[in-house]
Amino acid sequence: MACIQKTLRGLGVLRQLPRESTVNQTYCRYASSYKYLQVDLDKKTKVAHLTLARKPANSLNCDMMKEIAMATNELDQDRDCKGIIINSCVPNIFSAGLDLTELYQAKELFFQDFWRSLQAMFSTIYGTKVVTMAAIEGHAPAAGCIIALATDYRVMSEGKFNIGLNESMLGIPMNFWVKDAFIATCGQREGERALQLGQMFIPSTALQIGLVDEVVPQELTLPTVQKHMKQWVKVPGGARGLTKSLIRQQAMDNLKAKADEDLLIMTRHMLSQPIQNTIGAYLENMTKKSKR
Ligand SMILES: CCCCC/C=C\CCC/C=C/CC(=O)SCCNC(=O)CCNC(=O)[C@H](O)C(C)(C)COP(=O)(O)OP(=O)(O)OC[C@H]1O[C@@H](n2cnc3c(N)ncnc32)[C@H](O)[C@@H]1OP(=O)(O)O
After folding, report:
1. Which of 75, 89, 178, 203 can pair with 81 through a Cys bridge, CB separation 3.0 to 4.6 Å?
2. Do the Cβ atoms of 62 and 116 come closer than 8 Å?
3. 220 CB under 6 A from ligand 1?
């Protein structure tokens, strides 16, 4: 979609994307193109599965975020694609959020690339006119939750899983476009509470506050999303897509206009010693936990 490409180029990312739309891609092309994703487009149903595939936890490193943005963009431009289902091939984990090992002691130039890739990943999913849905079959903290928030419909599995934006608890202030996406989904009151407290939610509470649209047994999660997708793609794409743009355009414009400012603020925060210490301690805890 020209509009997404414009935004992405405005953000200064995905320079490697082709300017012209690449139609008539084959099943194979998608399947073999990515290191951290499986992308399969069923030309009959016109629905693609974009499966996060970076073991052990689908933590989002810079390259994976670029791949997600690129794959979404390619599908967005593919006339054979009307819907994208995002899911995970890691049992019980949708995505563990940003790859903290890449954020720890990151050099400024690398961090800038990393953050722009996060902005691009979000805006590409958020801005596509294609229907997007998330099958959240496990944990979805922080940036994992952000991927889900960028879609049109979210189904989460029952179970001892968490979803939410825990940045405050990590000592990191929220940024504007994540806050906006959360409030657009859950409302001002829930946003004020959840974002200040850095709350994580079990599936039933996530459902209550509108962070997810449905909670079902794990084995029914993907089939439920596929069922909804079948309905959504029946709606005439032009009208539905334009309506979606109408609703999301302002947020997209804001992100584009303030992307550099966001980058500056986040660079200052994230590379500051206190936050680096927090990330270091967090990583140490995770290592200790997995050794136990
Ligand atoms: C840095 C914050 C910036 C905030 C800026 C503000 C707004 C911007 C918006 C976007 C920002 C997003 C921020 C983030 O995404 S920060 C990351 C937050 N993520 C978490 O807090 C989750 C951490 N992980 C967990 O809680 C758990 O791993 C789990 C997802 C619940 C799964 O638990 P379990 O099944 O028990 O698996 P393990 O804990 O043993 O993990 C397996 C394996 O994976 C490694 N790992 C897990 N998470 C991460 C990660 N985020 N980054 C890097 N690596 C991760 C873990 O260390 C294990 O590795 P080993 O098997 O090698 O030991």
Report:
1. 75
2. no
3. no
Q: Is the CB of 32 under 6 A from ligand 1?
A: no
Give the position, in ligand 1's atom list, of the atom nearest the Cα of 57.
Answer: 44
Q: How confident is the model at residue 254 (pLDDT cuts 50, 70, 90)?
A: very high
| 214: DSSP letter | E
Q: For ligand 1, atom 19, name the residue with the nearest CA.
A: 97
Q: How confident is the model at residue 15 (pLDDT cuts 50, 70, 90)?
A: very low
Query: What does the block give as tokens for 154?
Result: 């979210």
Q: pLDDT tens digit string along 166-217? A: 988 878 888 999 999 999 999 999 999 999 999 999 999 999 999 999 999 9
Out of 180, 290, 291, give the residue to mutate to test ligand 1, the one with the largest number of ligand atoms within 8 Å of its CB: 290
**Average per-residue pLDDT in the chain?**
91
Alpha carbon of 242 to ligand 1 centroid (Å): 36
- Using CA atoms, how far apart are residues 245 and 261, in angstroms rounded to an integer? 24
Give the CA-trace dihedral at 277, 283, 285, 288, to 10 degrees.
-140
> And the tokens for 168?
């405050």
d(CA 247, CA 152): 11
Label the pairing between strands 37-42 and 47-52.
Answer: antiparallel
- Identify whether the C-beta of residue 27 lies closer than 8 Å to the C-beta of residue 43: yes
Mean pLDDT of 124-129: 98
